[in-house]
Amino acid sequence: MYLYAPDGKRYMDLVSGFAVSNTGHRHPKVVKAIKDQVDKYLHLTVYGEYIQSPQVKFAEKLASILPETLHSIYFVNSGTEATEGAMKLAKRFTGRSNIIACHNSYHGSTQGALSIMGNEYYKQGYRPLLPGVGFIEFNKSSDLDLITKETAAVVVETIQGEAGIRVPDIDYMRQLRERCDVTGALLILDEIQTGFGRTGSLFGFQQFGIVPDILLLAKGMGGGMPIGAFISSQEIMGVLKENPILGHITTFGGHPVSCAAGLANLEVILEENLISPVFSQELLFRKLLDHSKIKEIRGKGLMLSIQLDTFSQVEQVSKLCLENGIIIDWFLHCDTALRVAPPLIISEDEIKEACRVIIDAIGEV
């Protein structure tokens, strides 16, 4: 749960290295898996040239806990690479070129991912970006009519993260799935922040009763090591095998050390039952974060935002929390809210301590 400064001061990490350290920093089982793999081999060759057991074992474990249609797993190095691969895959499979994303979305910072970011402020310095990109309002059913038979894919965060933690209605998500089915557009769900237990289920889409055509994973996937994936069916993923051959290539994707860490991380989440307490942990945060200056607490599980009035308040509260040993932050598209996304291993006493510091800081500001 903690980071340590050179002077030995301890800081409780309430953002999990930005939704990465779901099992905490340096979980002993993850560290052991890394060390064991390092003693065997590191990078061998471009991903896919040789069969490597860490990749196969991790993919097999992931496939065993995902819906049957999500059984073809392509490992990459990060969330933004997963987004890029999925966009290429959708265009190649559908033969269409148009992509739809949501306002205030965030899917990474490379050129393709930036093209579907729903915030002009972060895009204006890099145009021209990809053509054929349109935007809809998240959780607004009437906008779904903008998805047409010209649309290759709709890329949506299961819960919008950088927008300040926005949870959609179940009906909206089901209507989105239905609209994609009707038009033949592929539904790409970005679970880069929400995956691996953060929302109270292994993956966020499980709480909405839908299954995406392509699933994006990263962040909490590797126990602190860099790794990501885009996942689909063999039918869809198979189009990358020909015309052209090697339709997607990555040198370091599926790095054996990252895959070994990812497998250990997933086994920790499942075997140590880290997901089942998440909803009670959420309730405790909501109960203890009681202050007249808090306008709203949004989110699900251990993916929460504390809505204040101004960025100045958020900035000052964050600094005071840091001075008192609590790491907290805000959001790219919502700088008036504080981010609360601790590792899933957080204890009840640690939640109480964190909330005390946050409430004291809000009171002082």
Produce the secondary structure layout.
Elements: E1 2-4, E2 10-13, H1 16-19, H2 28-38, H3 53-65, E3 72-76, H4 79-94, E4 98-102, H5 111-115, E5 133-136, E6 151-157, H6 170-183, E7 186-190, E8 214-217, E9 228-232, H7 234-237, H8 256-271, H9 278-288, E10 296-300, E11 303-307, H10 311-323, E12 326-327, E13 329-331, E14 334-340, H11 348-364
Parallel strand pairs: 2-12, 4-5, 4-6, 6-7, 7-8
Antiparallel strand pairs: 1-2, 3-9, 8-9, 10-11, 11-14, 13-14
Helix pairs in contact: 2-8, 3-8, 9-11, 10-11
Tally of helical segments: 11
How much is the radius of gyration in Å? 20 Å
Specify the helix fraction band.
25-40%
Q: Determine the mean pLDDT.
A: 97
How much of the sequence lies in strands comes to: 15-25%
Q: What gap, in angstroms, lies between the N and C termini?
A: 26 Å
Counted beta strands: 14
Coarse structural class = alpha/beta
Oligomeric assembly: single chain
Helix-strand string: EEHHHEHEHEEHEEEHHHEEHEEEH
Low-confidence stretches: none
User: What strand line-up does the widest sheet have?
Assistant: 3-9-8-7-6-4-5
Large-scale geometry? globular
Q: Which sheet architecture does the biggest sheet show?
A: 7 strands, mixed
Describe the structure.
The protein has helices at residues 16-19, 28-38, 53-65, 79-94, 111-115, 170-183, 234-237, 256-271, 278-288, 311-323, 348-364, and strands at 2-4, 10-13, 72-76, 98-102, 133-136, 151-157, 186-190, 214-217, 228-232, 296-300, 303-307, 326-327, 329-331, 334-340. By secondary structure, the chain is α/β, with parallel strands linked by helices. It has a 7-stranded mixed β-sheet, sandwiched between helices. Strands 10-11-14-13 form a 4-stranded antiparallel β-sheet. α2 (28-38) runs antiparallel to α8 (256-271) and α10 packs across α11 (348-364). The two termini are 26 Å apart.
